[in-house]
Design goal:
Helix content is 49%, strand content 10%. The relative contact order is 0.08.
């Protein structure tokens, strides 16, 4: 579908970029920008910036950047059409468009085929489970206490011991080998030919909230490895961004999710009436899954196993959820190993009691820390309490919550506020820069570091000046008296300067016009970074002029540096002239009118 320019602009206007991005990842305001951890690469220091005045985002770590539509495209692995449709529906707009482009149509059609292949495979596996070939799989599920109703509700199946059966079934339905492989259902080798990746496994279809099958988890019967196998990443499936049981749990009327370790835990919980249970897809809980849960605004209860691996997974999930602003609770099912065993032995009502008694996530971590130390030894006790204080850094994005938990430590261990602050300072993670002054009266942590700019050649002064003149075009009338586009650093910065100066000179500048004039994705991405510095918020005209003068001088000094690095045979003379201009400006004031120019 091809949308009109007017419709696209209305979609962007109705979807504030800070609101949209903030629904996917946690953001914290600093000045006119919002900062968070980049969702497109792994990082510990927040270098991902959202700039509402220009409705742009940019990561100064990996260089990704764009507008609200490009963000949804990148995050959701969606086409332009899909992203516009998503945002239009989010804003309550009627989706209007023209005919689809060939590229959009081909992409949508291919993804639809991949989903249909998975759906047809799911039906094959489910029918196979109740056939003579599936008795082994059905027996396993029945032994786990599942009813036929539950098995059919979750669409469980059996891949069979013959890895070629489902392939032949899908071929008969008209699907090509290339598409069957692309769906993640089969592999092809010279020795064995085409065969199902999941043979000999009980199958758990992974279903989206719109009832589409996008992948599978398969549990081996017997001693084979791996115990659980998931669909590999495909155009429609990313295990980091999906949750098992989410299609049902999201419809639950309960105001919480119960986060489990695996597929069977989720299914057993639903069968027992706890229909808000979900699980990660055979891997460790991820930041993307934490963000999904955060968007729904529900509480989270952790129902992980009580063994060592389960405790480690619970500690990881507590930290990850806390980092996005959700403080989970840990359910204890001792003396049983897991929720399934507990409910089988003690029943639904007893589990409900355990849920109501679930421990606060931070206090759960505190208890686990205390278990590792001999508290009768003063040195051991000090190390224990120091580690507990260090864990306060998981609240670094929420100063109010951090202070609240710090207060509980003061009360519990008899520390003073200054002592807790001192321990916080001593245990400060590297990604949080130290304050200039010692911390003595507050628990509040500093704002997280914003990370380093991508090394693409422009300076902070150039970025600030270009941002200012594009935010406030009247400033351009002053800047153009001293600088030309060629005075800016070569590459993307100079390209942006050239285009911006042209549009400002014509009186037709707009963000859309600027970005439409940029010819390649890399320059567009760089432009979002260059124009991310906030225009200065200064209360008097005198201070504004002083700031503008300082930025112009810094860009002129950068010009001198560039000339010095060039091979220009007249560079010494040019540097001399540039230095005279700088000295004159330093000793005088900015010329802001034609009379002053003359």
């Amino acid at each position: 579908m091809r949308f009109s320019d007017e419709f696209i602009e209305e979609v962007k206007a109705r979807n504030d970029i800070a609101d949209v991005v903030g629904s996917y990842i946690p953001l914290k305001k600093k000045g006119n920008n919002y900062w968070g951890l980049c969702p497109f690469h792994n990082e510990k220091t927040a270098s991902f910036s959202v700039y509402p005045p220009k409705q742009m985002y940019h990561c100064f770590g990996c260089g990704e950047g764009g507008n609200v539509i490009s963000f949804v495209m990148k995050y959701e692995n969606a086409s332009f059409t899909e992203a516009v449709r998503t945002l239009a529906e989010r804003a309550g707009m009627e989706v209007k468009g023209e005919e689809e482009t060939g590229e959009d149509r081909a992409r949508r059609a291919r993804n639809d085929i991949l989903r249909q292949i998975n759906s047809d495979a799911a039906l094959f596996f489910m029918n196979n489970l109740y056939s003579a070939h599936g008795q082994k799989g059905l027996g396993y599920l029945k032994d786990r206490g599942l009813t036929d109703e539950t098995i059919r509700h979750f669409g469980l199946g059996f891949a069979g011991n013959n890895g070629k059966a489902v392939v032949e079934h899908l071929r008969e339905k008209g699907y090509s080998d290339e598409m069957i492989i692309a769906a993640g259902l089969a592999t092809n080798s010279e020795k064995y030919g085409m065969g199902c990746s999941f043979f000999g496994r009980v199958m758990f279809p992974i279903i989206t909230t719109d009832k589409k099958v996008i992948g599978f988890g398969g549990r081996v019967l017997g001693t084979g490895e791996p115990k659980y196998l998931n669909t590999s990443e495909t155009p429609i499936f990313d295990k980091r961004r999906n949750l098992y049981g989410y299609n049902f749990a999201r419809k639950s009327r309960k105001k919480y999710y119960i986060l489990c370790e695996g597929y069977m835990d989720v299914i057993s919980m639903h069968q027992a009436g706890f229909d808000s249970a979900i699980a990660s897809l055979g891997t460790a809980f991820t930041e993307e899954q934490a963000a999904m849960i955060k968007r729904d605004g529900r509480e989270v209860y952790l129902a992980y196993d009580m063994d060592e691996a389960g405790e480690k997974a619970a500690l990881r999930a507590v930290r990850m959820l806390t980092a996005v602003g959700v403080t989970p609770r840990r359910i204890s099912v001792k003396p049983c190993k897991d929720p399934d065993e507990f409910i089988s032995k003690y029943g639904k009502e007893e589990f409900e009691k355990r849920l109501n008694d679930a421990a606060n996530g931070f206090l759960y971590i505190e208890d686990k820390v205390m278990e590792r130390y001999n508290l009768s030894d003063p040195e051991e006790r000090y190390k224990c309490e120091r580690e507990i204080v260090e864990n306060l850094w998981m609240f670094a994005r929420d100063e109010v919550r951090m202070n609240s938990y710090a207060e509980s430590i003061v009360t519990k261990y008899g520390y003073t506020k200054s002592e807790v602050s001192k321990l916080l300072e001593e245990t400060r993670p590297r990604e949080y820069p130290s304050k200039a002054a010692p911390v003595t009266t507050s628990y509040s942590p500093p704002k997280k570091a914003v990370g380093k700019k991508k090394e693409s050649g422009w300076t902070a002064a150039e970025s600030s000046l270009l941002t200012w003149i594009t935010d406030e075009p009247d400033v351009y009338s002053v800047v153009r008296r001293y600088l030309k586009p060629d005075d800016f650093s070569p590459g993307s910065c100079r390209t942006v300067a050239v285009k911006a100066f042209e549009l400002l000179e014509q009186g037709t500048y707009s963000n859309k016009a600027l970005f439409d004039s940029l010819e390649d994705e890399e320059t567009v991405s760089d432009a979002t970074g260059i124009l991310q510095n906030s225009a200065p918020d200064i209360d008097t005209p005198e201070k504004r002029m002083a700031m503008l003068k300082d930025l112009i001088i810094k860009v002129m000094e950068r010009k001198c540096e560039l000339i010095a690095l060039s091979e220009d045979p007249e560079k010494e003379l040019k540097i001399f002239k540039c230095r005279i201009e700088i000295d004159e400006l330093k000793s005088g004031k900015l010329r802001i009118s034609d009379e002053e120019e003359n």
